[in-house]
Amino acid sequence: MQDRTFDDSPTHPAQRFDMDPHEPELGSIPDGEHDSDAVKKTGTTTIGISTEDAAVIATDMRASLGGRFVSNKNVQKVEQIHPTAALTLVGSVGGAQSFIRTLRAEANLYETRRGEQISMTALSTLAGNFARGGPFLAINPILGGIDEDGAHVYSIDPAGGVMEDNYTVTGSGLTVAYGTLEDRYEPDMSVEATQQAAVASVEAAAERDTGSGNGVYLATVTEEGVDIQDYDLDEFDT
What we know:
By secondary structure, the protein is of the alpha+beta class. The protein has a single domain, classed as Aminohydrolase, N-terminal nucleophile (Ntn) domain (Glutamine Phosphoribosylpyrophosphate, subunit 1, domain 1, 4-Layer Sandwich), CATH 3.60.20.10. It has five helices and twelve strands.
């Protein structure tokens, strides 16, 4: 009877794996660009500001490839994810869109199970957990919303870090936008003044950052809901 031996040569079907079959583990991040540098290369400017009565988010409209080629001139980079919360799209388009769909679905599931509205603390924690453990590479969104404790704005970094602040800026145009925003920001600004400061900061970034431009989307989140409007760069009175 002929002995059967295992062929351990590289050509054997059982040896043609390029990776460990047990990888990747839950929560691990594949090799490749997934940090803030990868986000900046995609090109955009998004701004979030919290006031006493509202959270205001402003974004540009340009989609670019590496910040060098304009692939789309009318991209809505902020979307409602909850009756009183909105999230920006920053970084990988597919990853950002998938992130928004997932977070929106999980927020609805949370409220269905518990019979109560999700707080902004819980929603931001959920967003951070998804950014850290999910397949949403190269995203750096801003989450803005309002709950019974007031208005909130959070920056969600690609590693899942959640930072709440009175105002925040993400994207390739952040350095120019921050300078304009910090010159205009006041803790007791009205909603109208906050909108003007946010739009002016996006306009300033569009003047110098090749990955930002073509207009502004402005989202205003209040207790009544989320209002999203689009404007030309020279249309909004700043």
